[in-house]
């Protein structure tokens, strides 16, 4: 009985000494419509700059993520407007996330460079310029969460979209 107790105490001591950063961190990307607070589902999310590839040229090219074909990961938001992924065990200092939204409907370019340490401690809220101009409800992200706070494009942009698109 005493032997089992000693083993249990030793196991608890070892587990408590293991640093949480040794494990892959879960990151959640959430898309929210600010007009009614509803989630934005079925949208594509691309993650850049978390590849562990040793090719230096590829890593240098990832500082300018634009094309979905160069993404390290690709996800589609679920019915809660969320996509979740794990960071690699060796967490990069920075990485980028892009929500590829239909410009005719959503006013957001939605590309953000994320500082990993800040994200894992506080989370991050990304708003478009149009969402910033309008009064917006306060959104508090959880640690390890990126929230894209979206507003639909104004009606007049939707009307003239074919001309603006060129």
- Shape designation: globular
Radius of gyration: 20 Å
Series of H and E elements: HEEHEEEEHEHEHH
**What are the segments in which pLDDT stays under 50 over at least 5 consecutive residues?**
12-22, 54-59
Strand content: 25-35%
Helix coverage percent of residues?
25-40%
The largest pleated sheet is described as: 4 strands, mixed
* Main sheet: strand order: 4-1-8-7
Mean pLDDT: 77
**In terms of structural class, how would the helical and strand content be classed?**
alpha/beta
Number of helices: 6
Count of strand segments: 8
Distance between the termini: 78 Å
Describe the structure.
This protein is an alpha/beta fold. It has six helices and eight strands. It has helices spanning 2-17, 56-61, 116-122, 129-133, 155-159, 161-165, and strands at residues 26-33, 44-48, 73-76, 82-86, 94-100, 111-115, 124-127, 145-150. The chain has a four-stranded mixed beta sheet with strand order 4-1-8-7. It has a four-stranded antiparallel beta sheet with strand order 3-2-5-6. It is globular and about 70 Å long. 25% of the residues are buried. Residues 12-22 and 54-59 have low confidence and may be disordered.
Topology:
Blueprint: H1 2-17, E1 26-33, E2 44-48, H2 56-61, E3 73-76, E4 82-86, E5 94-100, E6 111-115, H3 116-122, E7 124-127, H4 129-133, E8 145-150, H5 155-159, H6 161-165
Parallel strand pairs: 1-8, 7-8
Antiparallel strand pairs: 1-4, 2-3, 2-5, 5-6
In short:
This protein is α/β, with parallel strands linked by helices and 166 residues long.
Which key phrases capture this entry?
166 residues, alpha/beta, globular
């Amino acid at each position: 009985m005493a032997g089992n107790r000693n083993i249990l105490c030793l196991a608890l001591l070892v587990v408590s000494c293991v640093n949480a950063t040794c494990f892959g961190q879960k990151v959640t990307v959430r898309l929210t419509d600010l007009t009614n607070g509803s989630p934005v589902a079925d949208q594509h999310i691309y993650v850049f700059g978390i590849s562990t590839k040793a090719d230096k040229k590829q890593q240098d090219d990832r500082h300018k993520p634009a094309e979905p074909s160069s993404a390290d990961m690709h996800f589609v938001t679920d019915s809660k407007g969320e996509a979740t992924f794990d960071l690699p065990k060796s967490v990069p200092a920075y990485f980028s996330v892009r929500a590829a939204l239909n410009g005719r409907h959503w006013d957001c370019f939605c590309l953000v460079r994320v500082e990993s340490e800040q994200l894992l401690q506080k989370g991050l809220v990304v708003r478009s310029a149009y969402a910033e101009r309008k009064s917006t409800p306060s959104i508090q992200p959880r640690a390890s969460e990126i929230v894209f706070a979206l507003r639909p494009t104004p009606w007049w942009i939707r009307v003239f979209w074919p001309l603006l698109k060129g």
